[in-house]
Amino acid sequence: MTALVTFGETMLRLSPPRGERLETAREFEVQAGGAESNVAVAAARLGRDAAWFSKLPDSPLGRRVVGELRSHGVGTDAVVWSDDERQGVYYLEHGVAPRPTNVVYDRTDAAVTTLSVAELDLDPVREAAVCYTSGITPALSETLRETTTDVLAAAQDAGTTTAFDLNYRSKLWSPEAAAAAYRDLFDSIDVLFAAQRDAELVLGRDGDAESVARGLAADYDFETVVVTCGADGSLAFSDGDVYEQGVYEAETHDAIGTGDAFVGGYLAKHLDGGDVAESLRWAAATASFKRTIDGDIAVVTPEDIERVIADEGDGISR
């Protein structure tokens, strides 16, 4: 049995050297990046058995994605291959003040947008301990919205714990469209991750993190709600109890993928038998460590995270 199964889009990230602009760059660094595969990689590198599935073109670009994920120990046997569709790409231009970091997506009509549940073997999902996806997946197409609904329902019906990160992206849909889609999925979700800003913007949940977490848990019967608050740390509400966690200080080299590292660290410790407080610590430490690493993926080890926690204790709220 695979401990963690994730599903969603993974793109190729192309980045010019730091200090160069996209419009004049002559070379690009290539890496794989996607919320759900980032979570799977973090969990796998932290010692958990993790797999990811999606739909990819049977091309050098699609195989490049699978090769990179496998190199980090993530299972990809459930990937659906397409003969005539394309691989999504995004371009990242690193910025420094006053020039902001710029992201340009080229993902329209990517193979993953046509993935239907009829193409999938759902046995890995039914047999997993945890199934995870994010709000990016149902935003990509109506087909994927239906597939996300079916996969989460199948997982929950089989006794698999389902985990979901709101992960709102304004370039993909409006807050109103996202809210409607999220609410359709909530009955099939056990553990919810939400940035406080997303809960306010999309779900209309204002107030402090504790009131947001308590309100969501009460309204939708989630087992656990984890609210992230940026530099102010994170908070979880589970089984009537509240847990708070500060951030761990880090020098930021690349912030892309920090939220995915947080989720991956949390689920890795949870799957290792950790309680909510321990899982939050691992989440915060993994997110902090990721900020020091270039690329979307948290290239971490359990020893790295144990050292961060040992050096910094419970983290520092800033």
What does this structure look like?
Helix 1 (35-45) crosses helix 9 and helix 9 (258-271) runs antiparallel to helix 10 (276-290). The protein has 318 residues and is α/β, with parallel strands linked by helices. Helix content is 37%, strand content 20%. It has a single domain (4-312), classed as Ribokinase (UDP-N-acetylmuramoyl-L-alanine:D-glutamate ligase, 3-Layer(aba) Sandwich), CATH 3.40.1190. Strand 12 (224-228) and strand 13 (234-238) form a beta hairpin. An eight-stranded mixed sheet has the order 4-1-9-10-11-12-13-14, with helices on both faces. Strands 3-2-7-8 form a four-stranded mixed sheet. The termini are far apart. The radius of gyration is 18 Å and the shape is globular. Belongs to the carbohydrate kinase PfkB family. One of its GO terms (molecular function) is kinase activity.
